[in-house]
């Protein structure tokens, strides 16, 4: 590799009038930055501003209501609009800062190099794919392994090609990133792993979802829980009347492709008075749910009762006096995206005594994420239980009084 | 002038306590009563709540700010507008990329040189046809350190690394005992006789 040269002084002088040259057609998959067309639009609209004010730049109080009436309300504060109207409105990529433009040129050059490498890698992959597996010493297994590692390298190169682009960064920060593209998936995953995933892992381990409900889980999906418009953080207490209707889940995947998942909502804290311990109960079970990075929303009410739902939603409820119940939500991936036969699974699935472990082993599932919310007895629980036809709302549970051993009594009879 | 005394003097001039307590930092006796109007806004500036006084002069706020957050001790955080931050970020990324590429190129060049020398030595050892005698001779280090006038290579002075300050013993141990006690780099007792 030749060392990349520092920008020469000759280039620096012609910077202001410089437009960035097009990349060669062979590598021009996508321009480094798509120059926004707002500049041209602003030029056109400015010809008769008072007739046709721009909601981006209108700042006179008399013009604003007219725009609002026309259904195009002014954008941002008046102060910002005024500043925008009085600025030359040069697109970000063409801002005449010398150092910035030099930096952009270095980045563009690097991107072109990366695109070249992507082309080479693609050609290599195609060659390996065409090749006869008997030519490799390890045979077909070696070929598949080789292909997988080459694909990973290709993905890495795709991310590296775009990671230095300020417009990509801006679009991601605005939440306008296209999750079909590897760079936005990468950025979203990085952001998720930075903090929200750590919180999630902490909650599911501290509240013992991990050994109690699933044996082990390394979350790769971002799970967001919402009841209607109310978002619930992992581990929050949810009032019984709010959780009466099923929740909406956002299962954000960061890997390419669709996944077929099973969602189980399990309560492992059902008090069992006979055995003086706790049982588990399934509050919801649905299989064959397709998620992808672009379609993360799963509304548990909208799932098809014939082909997806195994056990419909049972409102979470905790009897008075019982310790709080953990409603753990487990996301299980189905092996090789093969759908589960719902009719067969439905016969085996039972609410009481449901264990995720046996369900996992029966249908070859692997947990890919987990989350939870909690519920306890509150004012609305009795009404919720009555509406759901559940008995036991009139019972208050109490802890058994444990008689202290004689020598631990504070005032034993032998002292008197 | 010492920093703390300067701060004391400034504090006396502006009649403010030297150590900021919360009450003093929040409640500011307003020295100016004029209303400052923003150049951007076309509407009249009003205080957020009635009954509250006008804001103090911006200059006083700034003086206080720099007294309490002196730039010599705690540098101000970088606060950029979005575009400016993105420009800053772009330049930062490009600079890092450039540095990484230079570093890698340098590394590759060193590797190439090493390999070339290695190959040359190997050729000398195996391919010269003298049983490696020439190679062994070439590897001997005698006469490397010597005086150029006597036909040597590098003066012995350069065997030690050149430093700005070599210490009282010139790197020969502590000055109390042993060799270091005799080694003096400066004889302060010396008199012209």
Automatic annotation (TrEMBL), chain A:
Gene3D superfamilies: 1.20.58.1180, PEBP-like. Pfam families: PBP. Keywords: Mitochondrion. InterPro entries: PEBP, PEBP-like_sf, PEBP_euk. It is found in: Mitochondrion. The keyword Transmembrane helix does not apply. GO terms for cellular component: mitochondrion. SUPFAM superfamilies: PEBP-like. Component of the mitochondrial ribosome (mitoribosome), a dedicated translation machinery responsible for the synthesis of mitochondrial genome-encoded proteins, including at least some of the essential transmembrane subunits of the mitochondrial respiratory chain. The mitoribosomes are attached to the mitochondrial inner membrane and translation products are cotranslationally integrated into the membrane. PANTHER family: PHOSPHATIDYLETHANOLAMINE-BINDING PROTEIN, PHOSPHATIDYLETHANOLAMINE-BINDING PROTEIN 4. Belongs to the phosphatidylethanolamine-binding protein family. Mitochondrion-specific ribosomal protein mL38 subfamily. This is Large ribosomal subunit protein mL38. It comes from Capronia epimyces CBS 606.96. The lineage of its organism: Eukaryota, Fungi, Dikarya, Ascomycota, Pezizomycotina.
From TrEMBL, chain B:
This is Large ribosomal subunit protein mL40. Keywords: Mitochondrion, Ribonucleoprotein, Ribosomal protein, Transit peptide. GO terms for biological process: mitochondrial translation. It comes from Capronia epimyces CBS 606.96. GO terms for molecular function: structural constituent of ribosome. Signal peptide: none annotated. GO terms for cellular component: mitochondrion; ribonucleoprotein complex; ribosome. InterPro entries: Ribosomal_mL40 (IPR019192), Ribosomal_mL40_fung (IPR042831). Pfam families: MRP-L28 (PF09812). Transmembrane segments: none annotated. Belongs to the mitochondrion-specific ribosomal protein mL40 family. It comes from the Eukaryota. It is found in: Mitochondrion. Gene3D superfamilies: 6.10.250.3440. Its main location: mitochondrion.
